[in-house]
Amino acid sequence: MTFASILIQLLNGLAAASSLFLVSAGLSLIFGVTRIVNFAHGSLYMLGLYAAYSLIELLGRTPLGFWSAVVLASIAVGLVGAAIEVVVLRRIYRAPELFQLLATFAVVLVIKDAALFAWGAEDLVGPRAPGLGEAVQIMGKRIPVYDLLLIAAGPLVLGIMWLLLARTRWGALVRAATQDREMVGALGVDQAKLFTSVFFVGALLAGLGGALQIPREPANLDLDLSVIADAFVVTVVGGLGSLGGAFLAAILIGVAKAFCIGIGTVHVFGFEIIFSKLVMVVEFVIMGVVLVLRPYGLLGKKPALQRAIGDILPPLTSPRWQVAVAWIVLFLLIPLFADRYVVVLMTDIACFALFAASLHFIMGPAGMVSFGHAAYFGLGAYAAALLFKRAGLPMEAALLLAPFCAGLFALVYGWFCVRLSGVYLAMLTLAFAQISWSVVFQWDALTGGSNGLVGIWPSAWLAGKSAYYYMTLALCGAGIALLWRVLFSPFGYALRAGRDSPLRAEAIGIDLRSFQWAAFALVGGLAGLAGAVFAFSKGSISPSAVSIAQSTDGLVMVLLGGVETLTGPVVGAAIFTWLRDEVARRTEFWRAVLGLTILAIVLLFPQGLVGGLKALANRWREARA
Amino acid sequence: MLTVSNLHAYYGRAHILDGISFEAKAGEVVALLGRNGAGKSTAMKAIMGLVPPARGEVSFAGTRIDRLPPYRIARLGLGYVPEERRIFTELSVMENLEVGRQAARDGVPGWSEDKLFTLFPNLAAMRDRPGGRMSGGEQQMLTIARTLMGNPRCVLLDEPSEGLAPIIVEQMARSIQTLKGEGLSVLLCEQNLHFSQAVADRAYIIEKGQIRFGGSMAELAADASLREQYLSV
Ligand SMILES: Nc1ncnc2c1ncn2[C@@H]1O[C@H](COP(=O)(O)OP(=O)(O)OP(=O)(O)O)[C@@H](O)[C@H]1O
Ligand SMILES: [Mg+2]
Fold it and tell me: What integer pLDDT is reported at residue A313 of this predicted model?
């Protein structure tokens, strides 16, 4: 590697960093003022790319056409952001924060399908920037002029944002609202308008970040989740709410990624290190290191009021055993009158119910929101598959050992995670999930890479769909029952006490961190069990089981049912799985249908489905009494 | 100017305001007195819409305001100075004032930064100081100045003398008299009877969410048993 090639990689990294910074700055701005973690921010970036592509086609591949397209695309995306605020989020600012998160997930689904509808599933490769297509020679290497321009765009936007925030009335209002929005309202400022404007600016930045990348990156439908993961990392590494921090972090990560690609494969003491394979992991490694060393990011301040995501929850009530028995009998009877298709669907539902229940345990009662729960589900599934295929264990042994493997990973990841709380914790869980995903995705020799593993079938006595269904029911049912038991044990009470008031819990001698760590391992193991059972039911396993999409599915299931009740996640998992299956058979646009359904539910029942139905039932009972 | 009738308010299930009624006329300084936890601050928050009133009516300058969001109430010219001051700690003095700025209002004294700096001279020397790095007394002046930037007709002042040195309390009393001189109505929550007597025309006593007395400051001064029963600690 020469100095010149290092320089090239550096410039390359900086060019990518600019867009990363733009998205993160928008995300951070929105979070600061509205306290909403906007999962749809990556989708807005994606829209920026698509919009720029179409507008350039429309306006012509001239310098004027190109730059007008970039500007118009950003404004259009800004308007989409404002519309999301007005139509959806404005109605739920008083709802629990987790519910707001669910709403932004739904927006992700809707935007993805809107893009699929408008632009199709093929990647769209944009034109080079007209007039800037040529390259300059730097130390004998060719650098596109456009890249240099992008490098300048980052600091330029940072400067403009700084001026806006430090020198204008709008900026003063935004900073004031970041600290105390109620007081800002009491001083006569219309919060709704302020929030809409903040969403407009934040979305515009994301759109601009996307539009500027059109000469460098094809527009595609997978950008939404990958960009949001990157933006989360940048925001968290830089420190929530710090623009300068986001800028530093974007550069750090952009450059680190570029170096990994640039270095390629190196041989050190006979070991072969493939740096280019690290590119998907390196940002998460940086984030892990930063969060452990500086829990509030490079330039972030410790939040004045440290509050976990989620609000004080009402006490849990244990489900009545008569009701439970009735359901179990019904489940047992299903294979007798339903066809094979329903039995398979019910098997899926049982797996996801355990997955969702374990996620609910960690985010509701234990108060630790995980954005990366798929890690344990997926690692459980892969553990089962590998023990079965590569280690040659019998299926039964593989199935029973897999949860312990997943639990082991949860133990390791959890050690880091329990040191943080709130959004930072959520982001770190996402980071671990992404690291797991990229290892699984890239380790072809062991995991089969992107193709995954096939031929993972259960033993002969479980080969029938009904037999396997009964086993799934037994294992997943036992897992859920165990979680419920634990919740009403002293351990569960201690966890809930810790969630509601950490200081008091510590004062009465609860070692909260150890308890949370143990809870992490427990739910990791049970999610792993769900994954293992799922793997054998499908006969194959692919990296999507460890993906962000799988994690967000879990979150949607839990939030859909509602975190307040124990049955919520199970009901949420059933509805989600059934709806996805039902809708996907009828239309290609199942995500949009699902997203719109979720939005409707969010707007109608701000306490979640089960919580909402309970409230309805209560009102009905009171009306009769 | 401000009329409250039969106002009820709750925190969750706790019934905090149990049907209170009182009024402040134009140009009048009215004190709302009562012990800790009597419900004084809650009354102000309910008027301001920060705690939604459950029942009852509030009207201000001829408009019903008990269903309006706080920003609409503020825009009608009702200023609110909270007990905890709630200064924006990251913003400078000038920026704090900027957040409070509203358009000029007819028939109401208008305020500019310079005019406020003559009312609170201490602030003039620290225009660019972040709110978080000011003393309690300076913050108290800033929070009042910030509210005045909205050119209110009437201000709700929640315990302006709380935690201040005697000399600053005196200065605060003079400032309130200046406001009255400008024609503003003031509703004042206080525990400091002495301070109230220096500035208020009339007083109401609130206890357990109910009004127990309403009358002129002179009447209250004459009635020792009343003070003994509701105000002494
Ligand atoms: N946010 C809240 N949630 C629940 N209860 C509250 C809340 N704020 C105040 N209370 C209760 O409401 C009652 C009235 O409180 P309030 O603040 O109005 O009293 P106050 O008269 O202003 O007292 P002080 O002189 O101490 O400021 C008290 O019993 C208090 O405990
Ligand atoms: Mg008070």
Answer: 57
pLDDT at A585: 84
Q: Is residue A9 part of a domain?
A: no
- Indicate if A442 and A580 belong to the same structural domain: yes
Range of the domain at B85: 2-230
pLDDT of res. B222: 84
Which residues crowd ion ligand 2, with CB under 5 Å? B 41, 83
Closest by Cα among A544, A567, A511 to A360: A567
* Bridge-based pairing state of the strands A540-541 and B29-33: unpaired
A291-295: average pLDDT: 81
Could you tell me the CA-to-CA distances from A509 to A198, A354, A435, A461, A513 in Å, in that order?
44, 32, 35, 50, 12
Of chain B, the percentage scoring pLDDT greater than 70 comes to 100
Q: Is the distance from CB of A340 to CB of A591 less than 8 angstroms?
A: no
- Among B8, B32, B40, which residue has the most ligand 1 atoms within 8 Å of its CB, making it the best to mutate? B40
Give residue A22's identity as a one-letter amino acid code: L
Nearest one of A419, A166, A188 to B91, comparing CA atoms: A166
Same-domain check for residues A217 and A346: no
Report the candidate in A301, A418, A428 with the shortest Cα–Cα distance to residue A367: A418
Which residue's CA is minimally distant from atom 16 of ligand 1? B39
Q: Do residues B186 and B29 make contact, with C-beta atoms less than 8 angstroms apart?
A: yes
Give me the sign of the Cα torsion angle A15, A20, A21, A26. Answer: positive
Q: What is the pLDDT of residues A473-490, one digit of tens each?
A: 999 999 999 998 898 888
Q: Average model confidence (pLDDT) for chain B?
A: 91
Any bridge partners for residue A124, and if so which? A219
Last residue of a domain, one of A204, A221, A238: A221
* Total of domains in chain A: 2
Is the CB of B34 within 6 Å of ligand 1? yes
Nearest beta carbon to residue B74 from set A176, A180, A186: A186
Which tokens is A327 given?
């359901």
Q: Is A91 inside a domain boundary?
A: yes
A318-353 pLDDT per residue, tens? 677 788 788 888 888 888 888 888 888 999 999 999
Residues 77-136 in B contacting A (C-alpha not used; CB under 8 Å): 80, 82, 86, 88-91, 95-96, 98-102
Task: Count the neighbouring beta carbons within 10 Å of the beta carbon of residue A608.
Answer: 29
Band of the pLDDT at A315, cuts 50, 70, 90? Answer: low
| The total number of structural domains that make up chain B | 1
Range of the domain at A519: 342-624
Task: Note the ipTM here.
Answer: 0.94
Among A180, A97, A36, smallest CA distance to B50 is for A180
Instruction: Note whether residue A191 is domain-resident.
Output: yes
CA of B18 to the centre of ligand 2 (A): 16
Residue A43 has what pLDDT?
96
A232: phi then psi, degrees, rounded to nearest 5:
-55, -45
Q: Which ligand is nearest to the CA of B39?
A: 1
- Radius of gyration of chain A from its Cα atoms, rounded to whole angstroms: 25
Among the candidates A199, A221, A243, a domain finishes at A221
Per-residue pLDDT tens over the stretch A27-61: 989 988 888 889 899 999 999 999 999 999 999 88
